[in-house]
Amino acid sequence: MAKYVLKRIVLACVTTFIILSLSFILIKLLPFERPLGNDTAQTAYFDRQYNLGYVYRLDQQSDLYGELLYKSPSNKGKSSYYYTVPVMTQYVHWLENIFTKWDWGDSKTFQPNVKASVIIMKRIGYSIRLNIFSVIFSVPLGILLGIWAALKKNSATDHIISTLVMIFISIPSFVLITFILKIFAYNFGLLPSTWPPDTSPLSARVQGYIIPVFCLSFSSICGYCRFVRAELCDVLESDYLLLARTKGLTRRQAIIRHALKNSMVPIFPSILSEFIGILGGSMILEQLYGIPGIGKLFVLALNYKDYDILFVDMALVTAISLGAGLITDLSYGFIDPRIRMGAKNS
Amino acid sequence: MKKVLSILLVLAMVVSLAACTKDEPENNDNQTTNAPVTTDAPKTTDDPGKTDTSTPAPTAEVEPTATAEPEIPWDGAYMEKEDFLAYTAHDLESIFEAIEDQLDDAQYQTVKTVVDNGIDAINASTSVKDAEKAYEDAYNGIINAIPKADGLVTYKKENNVERTNILGILEQYGVANGLTGISVFENGGYTMYNERITLGTENYIVGYGFGTLAEGSINADLEYETNDAWKRYYHTYESSDPGTLNYLNNQGQQVGDLYSYIGASFVTNFMNATKDGYDWVPELAKEKPQPVNDDDGDGMCTTWRMEVKTGDDGLKYKTGSEMADRKAFDGRGVALEDYEYAFKLLLTQKNELYRGSELANYNGDMAIAGAKDFYDGTADGFKADLWEKVGIKTYVENGKNYFEVTFAGEQTQFYAMYYISSSIYMPIPEDFINLVTVKNYLGFSADGKQTPVDNSLTTGAYYIERYDSDQQIVFAKNPYYIYADTKYSIPGVYVKIFPAAESDPTAAIKEFLAGHFDAAGIPQDYLNDYKNDPRTRSTLGDNVTKLNVNACDAETWEYLFGENGTVTQTEKANYWDVKPVLGNAHFRKALSLSINRQQFADSRGNVASVSFLSSDYMSDPENGISYSTTEPHKRAIEQLLEDTDGAGYSLELARDYFRMALTELEKDGAYKPGTKENPTVITLETAWRYPQEEERYQKEIKNYIESAFNDDSVCGGVYKLELTFWVGNEWTDVYYNKMMLGQFDIGFGSVSGNSLDPIGFMNILSSDQEISHNFTLNWGVVTNDPDVYPLVYDGKRWSYDALFNAVNGQAIVTDGQNNSVITISYNEIAKNDDGSYTGSLVVAPALPDMTNLTITAIMCCNYDRYYNGDGQYDEQPVEFTTDQAAGGTYTITFTVPAELAETYTKGEGAPEEPTGYTGFDFYYDLEFNGSVESTYYSVDDAFVIE
Q1: Which of chain A's residues have a Cβ under 8 Å away from the Cβ of B469?
Q2: A contacts of B443 (beta carbons < 8 Å)
Q3: Are A194 and B443 inside 8 Å of each other by CB?
């Protein structure tokens, strides 16, 4: 078991390294975007890129540095020549800083000079809180609806629940929030239309969770509902449940003691992966509702081309995803002792 | 005899009929042939406005007399003779009207006669070529009647009225030659304000706004706001968190807007007493700049000074920080040296401040003397000896505190005031910067614990009260502000970070309507509902969106962009296929006339515009007079507006000009007609920034232009115009990869410059990249050629470049062309028998009598040995001789001794083994018109050691 866990952790690290390396190289290979402006503005801009370590500045033209990005206008006969720093050189520096100093770099444009890791840590709390509330809200509700639908299989209740599930599972959270905002925030003014700042009173901040948690939860509720219904229906039709009934258990006893327990085996591990899924799904929702979490930060870092933040954000989400995958796999063994991790085929 | 005559007459009629119907469009029922109303050119028909050209009209006008010469059939393909001649005559008249005010009496009479005769000759023409020749003859007559400008000229010291006249002349030149592009709309629009806001004025003031904060007030709480202290704050939004308020190190507009709340400058603007303009009022200064070295008393000089306010005058710093070390600066008086330190901070290269680099790299007269040299020399930190040479000084004289600035060139009082009035020069104590560090100033600390609240110190109207990342930025009124008692009665500004506004154009107005914001622009979807709402105010813009045009002919394109192009060098395989239609002035005019700007702009909540410059540009910045309201501007765009709907749109005229253009282009052999079934397709690529602009702009513009041209009445369908869509990977590709390289037909453009210096912004019309600072977007003629269009000012003819330079500084003009003080040409170096190398440099002064050149040194530098291992620049002086010919031309001959050349042996390229690539720096003192400049000229890769 320990060997298996260790192996998985090592593999997770290797996977993270590969993902980040590929991301770094591919993102850095994007065309160099320069702003619009005359020579004065251009020279100032490229000086800034030089200061940030993105370009070389030479006093003469050279064939050693690839494409010439910009040549400043002649000043008393002298110009400066700006060349991009090769991607692999940047990559090596980046890795060196991480492995030798655990320095993930500073923000360059989003929040200049601030450590990328500091920016992430300040924001991760918002995303985690939001997702925890969402999971707390969606899991019981989804499971209950699924159980209800399964128990009322093929009845009108089941059909209504299933139809609604099909409809709402198809609506992305960022579409849903548009409608909810219009109705509850703008038309009736019952809820805040944007994320209340930290300086707001507690009641306002609590209200601020309602819309995003609801929007994030909706598809989860539907997913759990569908999943639980399917699993429970299978179990309810299984032989051992029939045996339980023939042995004298009431339907309620059979369902609670045997059906529900067994149907939950594949459901509980999925809660963990759901948590990760919501982290990704909240990216757009955070942007729309103005939640200062890491999902929104990822979008902003991409827009700002603030690569160090982007890579820390990516590393974090990758690590959480891989970690959650590992925990999910391990949890099967705890929930169902028949499943043994890392066991060899006999 | 009668029979013979009758037969001849019938034959003549048949020939005429056949000729007239031969190339007529098959279906041109809708064709109109209205000549421009303003022309009084004699018409050869009694009915110039008739609309049906399918009837062979000329046959009815032929007098069947026995002695009449048979009329020569008209060879214009798509336009009737009368109309073609009328339009041609109108073109000639337009030129005359554009220049007549600039001619003296004798010139006026001569030119008038030339024009009148030209119009007569045009009207007497019997073919397109004849008419074109008559026009050309008259054009040459005009050109020859006006002498070209010569000498050292400056109009910089002229008053605003005269400079506005010159601006109008430059603009008119741009319009006539396709250099101003095709303007479509200005980015003004409609903004809604909360009823609780009392604006400073109800009428938008160009360049100032409504005076919302400075002169406005708030008379009720914002219910939505949960913090009682902020209920009377002005509530606005930003779509993203800028992450810093350090405008000294930021190139974006957003930080500049936010910084303006806390910034203060030497002189600022406040609304005038009549609330229809603004005044310039000393803020940190006690007075407007006073001349120091105006020796000739013309009101212009390089050094200006102002008495400035300090702590003794009640000017104090304010911070919102609660940290004890920061709070110690709260209420501290401003010291005189703090003004100078603000510039030291900016210009020290080691501080890596974007605005410092920008300030150091300013070109021309507005640069601060010595700033560039100081910047270049301070990569390792501040240097006191270099600072001594920078044109920034503070001193006390007779008990008064003075700030003094020296510019590279002479300035008027206004521009001296303007160039030095930026709030990035706000004073700051050196010990405060030492405390917070340059990196953290106005931003966050690396660990995020100190926010801009802690790292800022202000003398402006507001200070930073809170900064919550990605949530809100709050500014509170600065009680120490110098005008705190009389201005800025609104107690604070609350800026919500509202990312939804970035992706949803209606998000902000929804927030406004819900009572969360105090103001919001009205997006397109809400225009119908709220355009006439009592809370709505209309604003003018600061930017005009244009379709930039590549109006070059093949020859000009080759000159500018070809293998040896003056702008850029393009390989033959990558030559752009220039479209002759765009080189035709009538076609360009037709394009402009095709676009229904009013409809286009109205549907987007913008302002229709045919102007190159937006309403924000001031012809008299001191008094706030917009150039768009002046007569010179109205004259310049007259040709775009005449006989249109008032916004430059006329479908009938557009089609007339398309006919005219096709007639001319076909005669020139540029195009051959197809058939209605298989038309000749003219494809114009339109380049844009973003893919979504195809839906947003292109489709509608394409429809306007194509439906105007492709109507059967234009050419009967034998030509078809198609506009295609192009977009690059990056939004700037349309500028850097298309327009600036001449690789385009039509391209989106929306750029603006310094709105207080519209004449300076005209530089981007020049094809000379030194003048435009590599920012030319429209191409057509070579703008240093005075003969391509009669640009006349003060009774003389100029090239565009020459007049531009003359009005912006000084121009050395030879035969109407702009010239450099000296022209340097390098003669290839050659190896001598003894192993030495000899080369020469020829320097030709434009004005020899006013020029004196002294070569001080010639340094030889092998590039591979550039850094000779110890980081030092490795160069050796070589001997030279200077000869001056009778015409003033200098010839400098120099020799690289064999011993020196041998040290540059051919190797691998390392400092120890140089490949031999060697260049020279020629150091010289150039004395021109009394002023001396020490500079140098470099020749790269001059020779390779064999």
Answers
A1: 111, 122, 292
A2: 111-114
A3: no
| Selected residue of B378, B471, B861 to mutate for chain A interface (largest A Cβ count, 10 A) | B471
Nearest CA to CA, how far is B71 from chain A (Å)? 58
In this prediction, residues B692-717 reach a mean pLDDT of: 96
Residues of chain A with CATH 1.10.3720.10: 116-335
Degrees, nearest 5: CA angle B173-B179-B182: 110
> Which candidate, B220, B198, B218, places its Cα nearest to that of B210?
B198
Smallest CA–CA distance from A111 into chain B, residue: B243
3-class DSSP string for B552-587: CCHHHHHHHHCCCCCCCCCCHHHCCCCCHHHHCHHH
pLDDT at B111: 97
Residues A293, A296: Cα–Cα separation, whole Å: 6
| Exposure b/e, A4-25, CB count within 10 A at least 16 = b | beeebeeebeeebeebbeebbe
Report the percentage of chain B scoring pLDDT > 90: 75
**In residues, how long is chain A?**
346
* Shortest CA gap B250–chain A (Å): 9
Amino acid at B788: V
Which residue in B has a C-alpha nearest to residue A69's C-alpha? B736
- Cβ contact B773–A290 (<8 Å): no
All structural domains of chain B: 2-146 (no CATH), 153-185+543-789 (3.10.105.10), 240-497 (3.90.76.10), 820-944 (2.60.40)
Would you call B243 an interface residue with chain A, using a CB distance cutoff of 8 Å? Answer: yes
CB contact under 8 A, A44 and B355: yes
Which pLDDT belongs to residue B870?
Answer: 52
> Among A171-185, B59-73, B377-391, B662-676, whose mean pLDDT is lowest?
B59-73
Pairing label, strands B492-497, B234-238: parallel
- Chain B: closest CA distance from residue A38 (Å): 6
Among candidate residues B856, B823, B840, the one with its CA nearest the CA of residue B933: B856
The answer to which of B58-67, B400-409, B781-790, B807-816 has the lowest mean pLDDT is: B58-67
User: Given a cut of 60, is residue B50 above it in pLDDT?
Assistant: no
B468 in contact with A, Cβ within 8 Å: yes
* Pairwise CB contact (< 8 Å): A112 & B516: no
Q: Per the CB < 8 Å rule, is B730 touching A33?
A: yes
Of the two residues B874 and B451, the one the predictor is more confident about is: B451
Q: If DSSP codes are grouped into helix, strand and coil, which group holds residue B759?
A: helix
Contact call for residues B732 and A35 (beta carbons, < 8 A): yes
DSSP B94-120: HHHHHHGGGS-HHHHHHHHHHHHHHHH
For residue B199, pLDDT beyond 50 = yes
A116-335: which CATH topology? MetI-like fold (1.10.3720)
Is the CB of B836 inside 8 Å of chain A's CB atoms?
no
Contact B314, B301 (CB under 8 A): no
Does the ipTM surpass 0.95?
no
Mean pLDDT is highest, among B643-657, B867-881, B899-913, for B643-657
Which residue of chain A has the CA closest to B351? A51
Q: Which residue of A has its CA nearest to B501?
A: A288
Identify the segments of chain A with pLDDT beneath 50: 346
Chain B residues 408-437 within an 8 A CB cutoff of chain A: none
Closest-CA distance of chain A to residue B237, Å? 12
**Which among A185, A286, A188, A178 has a CA at the least distance from the CA of B511?**
A185
Query: Which carries the bigger pLDDT value, residue B805 or residue A55?
Result: B805
**What percentage of chain B reaches a pLDDT higher than 70?**
89
Beta strand extents in chain A (DSSP E only): 55-58, 68-71, 81-84
d(CA B802, CA B818): 4
Chain B positions touching A188 (Cβ under 8 A) are none
Q: Which residues of chain B are within 8 Å of residue A297 when distances are taken between CB atoms?
A: 470
